[in-house]
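Below: protein 1.
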Amino acid sequence: VEAAITPATKLLYMETPSNPTLGITDICAIVALAKQHQCLTFLDNTFMTPLHQRPLDLGVDVVIHSATKFLSGHSDIIAG
C-alpha cells in the first residue's frame, strides 16, 4: 500500500473483509500509514456491520455501510 501512495494521495480506502474474496486488511496498520502520509481513511464496513467491527474505534476517519445489504444482520432492511 505504501508504494502506491503519491504526493497526490488524499485518502486510503479499505473494504475488509473484501467482497467477494473475503480478504482481510490490517485496519490499524493502514490507519497508521495514512496518518504518516497525512491521508484520510475510509472503510466500507458492509460485510461486518457495526455489530461485528467498529472501525471508528480503530482510528478510521469515515465508515461506509451499504444499507441495502447486511446492516440489519439478515437482509431485511432496505434503506436505499
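Below: protein 2.
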Amino acid sequence: MFSLFNSFKVIALLEGISYILLLFVAVPIKYLANDPQYVKLLGMPHGLLFVAYIVLAVLLASQLKWHGKTLLIVLAASVIPFGTFYVDRTYLKKAK
C-alpha cells in the first residue's frame, strides 16, 4: 500500500518531471515554433501535481517532524527546476 511518505515521493518525482518538460520543452516550442499546444497539454497536469505536492508536503511535515525551515525549503523546491529531485535526495533519503 501507499503510505503518505511513498505517495509524496511519487508525486514529487512526477511534479519534477512535469515541470522540466513544461519549462524546457513546451515553453520553447510555444515561443520558437509559435505552437502553444504543448503548454496547454502539460499545464493542467503539472498544476494538479504542484498542488498535490504542496498539500502532501505540509501533511508529511508534521509526520516527519520537520522544522519550519525544512518545510520552507521543501516547498520552495517545487518552484525551482530540479528542486524536487534535490528534496528527494536530501530530505527524503534521510527520513527513510
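The mean pLDDT is 94.
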